[in-house]
Design goal:
heterodimer, A: about 325 residues, alpha/beta, four-stranded mixed sheet, B: about 80 residues, mainly alpha, 4 helices, globular
């Protein structure tokens, strides 16, 4: 049995923020400079009562064409780092809210910007091993709830959103191979301290307990170094060259990151799809949202060989090649 | 470029500031140059990588550098400073 992505949908919250909102709270910010570096003009902000579970459910509801399709789901994977609770797994709550059948495997994946690739690998493996027939892969994040309104590194970048895809059986091998990596030396560079069992005293480095902290320079250098290596490793493992890839979709981190990855890999403009300008960085949901938008715009076409690359918090990274047949 | 001179590093840093009158020297740092913030620093990291044909990205010390001297030292440790 092989696996394929059969459909993609996404949900974005109603509220948006622009440079004007940043300036309102932070009159000393040079928002033009910030916008030039991030490439982000609009970000989506979840309502105070709206959680990752709520958004994941909304994305999934958009996905289901029929009741039968929903009833066929026997595995639910929810990628999130902003769960409703430490426990139970948010996937269990989503299962109940969507009314999925009870003989359905459900679990959360705690990964951020590489999370979609991790989830896709798990989903494809479960289908290919016949452990599951239809996997609902959800990515949903509300990072903005972790961000201090005066945090100039994180607030202009992160956005909330959710994606939903169905992974089903296929006669053709449409998903993979994959390349993954983990480097915990970067854990402290993108972190929400005191959000779990370990509690640490405050220091003066701007890393405030309970809020997202991002060391922008360190994370940026990690991406510049590691992403091209992962792309090369995946191409080598798959026996393909850059020319064999019809389209690249990278995690939508920021314009600066995306433009420098493109520069380092020498990817022509017509082979890369970015949507960061009007959506922002929705963490694990960026890649599936971009894939859907690329398909809707006729840029990702049926039969295209597409490379998807996620990277960030952890550090963690993953890349894969898919044959787009959705 | 194979290697950068110390003066070229100073000029690369200087180019990242909108204010053409800003004075940058080897002892300039994020603490002494008012507009040298995290955004400017990212621009410096990119410019170094461009000038060095992609060889700066793997130098982890560059991300944490806070002065021209620390940048030069990090590059020098990787044999990327001429002279």
């Amino acid at each position: 049995m092989k696996a394929a992505i059969s459909r993609i949908e996404y949900y974005l919250p109603l509220k948006t923020e622009t440079a004007a909102d940043l300036l309102h709270d932070n009159p000393d910010w040079r928002t033009e400079d910030i916008e030039k570096k991030t490439g982000i003009k609009k970000r989506y902000i979840s309502a105070s009562t709206e959680t990752a579970v709520d958004m994941a459910v909304k994305a999934a509801v958009k996905l289901f064409a029929t009741e039968e399709e929903k009833n066929a789901i026997d595995c639910l994977i929810l990628v999130t780092q902003s769960p409703d609770y430490v426990l139970p797994a948010s996937a269990c709550i989503v299962q109940e809210q969507l009314g999925l059948k009870k003989n359905c495997l459900g679990f959360d994946v705690n990964q951020g910007c590489s999370g979609f690739i991790v989830g896709l690998a798990l989903a494809a493996s479960l289908v290919e091993s016949k452990t599951a027939g239809t996997v609902l892969l959800l990515c949903s994040e509300t990072y903005t709830k972790y961000i201090d309104k005066h945090d100039r590194t994180s607030r202009p970048v992160f956005s909330d959103g959710a994606s939903a895809i169905l992974v089903t059986g296929s006669t053709e091998d449409n998903i993979g191979p994959f390349d993954f990596g983990t480097d915990g030396t970067g854990a402290a560079n993108l972190i929400v301290k005191n959000s779990g069992a370990r509690h640490e005293s405050e220091n003066n480095d701007g890393n405030t307990a309970g809020h997202l902290f991002m060391n922008g320079s360190e994370v940026f250098m990690f991406t510049m170094d590691m992403v091209p290596k992962s792309v090369s490793a995946l191409l080598s493992a798959s026996g393909k060259s850059m020319g064999d890839i019809d389209l690249f979709i990278f995690h939508q981190a920021s314009f600066l990151v995306l433009s420098n990855i493109q520069r380092r890999l020498q990817i022509p403009d017509n082979k890369i799809f970015n949507n960061i300008e009007n959506i922002g960085n929705t963490v694990s949901a960026t890649i599936p949202i971009a894939l859907k938008q690329a398909a809707d715009a006729g840029i990702a076409k049926k039969g295209h060989t597409i490379m998807l690359v996620g990277f960030g918090v952890g550090y963690s990274w993953g890349s894969c090649i898919i044959k787009y047949n959705s | 470029m194979e290697k950068l001179t110390r003066e070229q590093v100073i000029q690369i840093v200087k180019k990242q500031f909108e204010d053409a009158q800003v004075v940058i020297a080897e002892d300039s740092s994020m603490d002494t140059v008012q507009d040298w913030d995290s955004l400017v620093h990212l621009g410096i990291l990119v410019a170094l990588d461009v000038e060095l044909d992609g060889r700066a990205a793997s130098i982890k010390k560059l991300a944490g550098s806070r002065s021209v001297k620390e940048i030069i030292d990090a590059l020098n440790e990787n044999q990327l400073i001429a002279g």
